Amino acid sequence: DVKVTQSSRYLVKRTGEKVFLECVQDMDHENMFWYRQDPGLGLRLIYFSYDVKMKEKGDIPEGYSVSREKKERFSLILESASTNQTSMYLCASSLDKYTEAFFGQGTRLTVV
Amino acid sequence: AQSVTQLDSQVPVFEEAPVELRCNYSSSVSVYLFWYVQYPNQGLQLLLKYLSGSTLVESINGFEAEFNKSQTSFHLRKPSVHISDTAEYFCAVDSGGSNYKLTFGKGTLLTVNP
Predict the structure, then answer these.
(1) In this structure, how many other beta carbons lie within 10 angstroms of the beta carbon of residue B47?
(2) A38 shares contact with chain B (CB less than 8 Å)
(3) Given CB atoms, is A51 within the 8 Å cutoff of chain B?
(4) Counting one residue from A and one from B, how many pairs have CB atoms under 8 Å apart?
(5) What is the pLDDT of residue A25?
(6) What is residue B36's predicted lDDT score, i.e. its pLDDT?
(7) Which of A32, A53, B105, B108 stands the most exposed, by the fewest C-beta atoms within 10 Å?
(8) Nearest residue in B to A48, CA atom
């Protein structure tokens, strides 16, 4: 069974903290994505990666960075968390554009 | 740039009624189109997709969507819904360019009432 695993389901952090959200896939997929999901705004792409050490900005990259040192792992970093980054974060991976993207269960991050 | 518009944020229907969830896209190049579904407290999963060929595509649980290039639409339909279809539905587009970038709409919450 294919799997995209996000390290935490729920996370509470303080304003100004550096936050790491981890995502691991076991399908040997080239492409990995980070989205944030907010009510009424749907899914917005933060960053994506189509190969190890390769990354591209999505639609809302401000305040975020990413790291992909190994093919199976894609990390989202909030350098200095702010309250407006409170959201549900979804990681996804895909073999290519013709096949489906597989999503993790999401991490609900609250910044207080 | 590509974008997706889902015209209805919420669609309440009664069980066994037909439903249509609307999706329009904009893209300057040919596209691949997808519908994903998110059941309560779960992650997203693919419902159906259009890549090429027949413009009518179907899912295993009775949903279908039709790609209409002239109207730039990819509406999702089901002739008779069940309570278990209650979920949020997301339309998504990939431009088919060299980089794979999947853009989602804002979602439509389908609520099926008994």
Answers:
(1) 21
(2) no
(3) no
(4) 58
(5) 96
(6) 95
(7) A53
(8) B101
